[in-house]
Design a protein that fits this description.
single chain, alpha+beta, Jelly Rolls, two-stranded antiparallel sheet, globular, Alpha-ketoglutarate-dependent dioxygenase AlkB-like domain-containing protein, ALKBH7-like
């Protein structure tokens, strides 16, 4: 696949070993997996943080996730949002999903410690559908995708600046693991990328009917208690 070095440097996506990528697969990744810089404003970021921070501060950072995918994190699921923040959630969904998508009611809030990492994994097909999307608060980060069968050859990085939107779909959802690099590995175009605590507000669609968990209790949601 022919992508100029200059174009790659200006973009928020970086293919490793680009000469070894099948052209059709690289094009699918470009269409289905992307980042949009400055998707939300500073004021919108502040509003989201004002709503979620009081709940997150009640939780401790966990060292291991139920599927061993995350280290030093805390997470919640939230269904009800203030009107101004619901507008942002709706905008995320409009950008990343088709018009007739069935959305998961709960929005996932993931708080990753400055020293935390998200290890390579593919999200369970029982708990979410074809697209994983969200906005990054508080810090820049780099997400790395590795093909599940050619993990050292087909590798692509997504630079996720603070307040950007990211989207994973198509082959990036099912055929590639994704991870968030720790600070020691976070290098973009030869420059070290400072990383701090990061909160992501994540929206997902319902899993395909054939993949949905039979028992509702298998879905490990941690809903925020509703106010009286």
């Amino acid at each position: 696949m022919q992508i100029s070095r200059r174009a790659l440097q200006k973009s928020l996506i970086l293919f490793h070993n680009i000469q070894k990528w099948p052209a059709a697969l690289a094009e699918e990744i470009l269409q289905a997996c992307y980042v949009k810089k400055d998707f939300i404003t500073e004021a919108e970021e502040k509003s989201l943080l004002t709503e979620v921070e009081p709940h997150m501060k009640r939780l401790r950072y966990e060292k291991s996730h139920w599927d061993d995918a995350i280290h030093l994190y805390r997470e919640r699921e939230q269904r009800k949002w203030r009107d101004e923040n619901l507008d942002v959630i709706s905008r995320i969904r409009s950008e990343s999903f088709g018009a007739n998508t069935e959305h998961l009611t709960y929005v996932h809030i993931l708080d990753l410690h400055k020293d935390g990492v998200i290890k390579p994994h593919i999200d369970s097909i029982r708990y979410c559908g074809d697209v994983i999307t969200g906005v990054s608060l508080l810090s820049d980060a780099i997400m790395r995708l590795r093909h599940k069968d050619q993990k050292d050859v087909l590798v692509v990085d997504l630079l996720m600046p603070r307040r950007s939107l990211y989207r994973l779909g198509g082959p990036g959802r099912y055929d590639f693991t994704h991870e968030v690099l720790d600070e020691t590995e976070s290098v973009w175009q030869g420059q070290k990328l400072p990383r701090d605590r990061r909160i992501s507000i994540i929206c997902r669609d319902l899993p395909k009917l054939s993949n949905r968990a039979i028992q509702e209790e298998e879905i490990k949601l941690k809903p925020i208690p509703e106010e009286n």
